[in-house]
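[RESIDUES AND BACKBONE]
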Amino acid sequence: MPAINNSPFLRRSIAALAALPLLTLAACGYGSDAKSDDTAKVAAGARKIDGLGSVKIGYFPNLTHGTALVGRERGLFQKELGATKADYATFNAGPSEIEALNSGSIDIGWIGPSPAINGYTKSDGKSLKIIGGSASGGVKLVVDPKKITSLKDVKGKKIATPQLGNTQDVAFLNWAAEQGWKVDPQSGKGDVTVVRSDNKVTPDAFKSGSIDGAWVPEPTASKLVAEGGKVLLDESSLWPGNKFVITNIIVRQAFLKEHPKAVEAVLKASVEANKWINANPEQAKQAANKQLAEDSGKALPADVLDPAWKSVQFTDDPLAATLDTEAAHAVKAGLLKKPDLKGIYDLTILDKVLKAQGASPVDAAGLGTS
């Protein structure tokens, strides 16, 4: 199980968060509300898979979860599940989705790397498996060009990240350390001040001038650009091949064991969704935005949607080596004790689906199920 530096600040943070995991490792940090949807239509004459009445699927109403958005909007999950209903729940933070998975409220979910790591290690490797990839990229350092004109100008400034210990927070702390700057990971104070700010309020903080920039995922990054910000650094440029995991697919281990055919159906739909997204980027963008509007009550305007969508790459590859690196960055930052991630991946069913389509298997980077 991972552990964190036992500072008074962190003890207060954990107490305030109560039931959340030791590291509040949310992928995007948009809160923790969830809602269910029961309007899915079942094709006439379809049969149930494994005798299941439904498969409960969770995701964020966020562009980095575009595979789930498009797959739902186009009815791909329901098509593959037949008479087994695709039942959806949306979440605004990783910890709440992990809790839903652990309680059985969802069976399969789209989620960021840090909550997946935390959920796996906190349960001693018993709660979940990563069964596929979904997206890469979509994270940027956006700054006020009147205050910051170069990377070296970031020193001494106030930079927002979504949440203490979340995926982007760890990435920024690691980048700052590589610049030779010292920052206390818990307080965020040092050569650069890290301000933990919910992505919903970060654009307002940016407009008011209370922060000088932010290391954030899409669409928050493009919202800041629409408010006059400038992209100073795209995180993808820091990774080999410009790829790093931002969204994975996870499943309850018990569900995977008991209902592999249902898991296969969802993965078939996911692979089909990514294939369609990459072949039809403009149509896919609109499909994702349509589903986003239904989930959140508001579609993204074109000046935010267009650049945000372009910065996310959709892939079936879970990019396992980059997840291991992200965990190492958290250890280096002093936010996590070295975790044992052996067995966090089970890509058996995904590889079966890919093989059937004539595609190559994906790599678990030594972290797969034996």
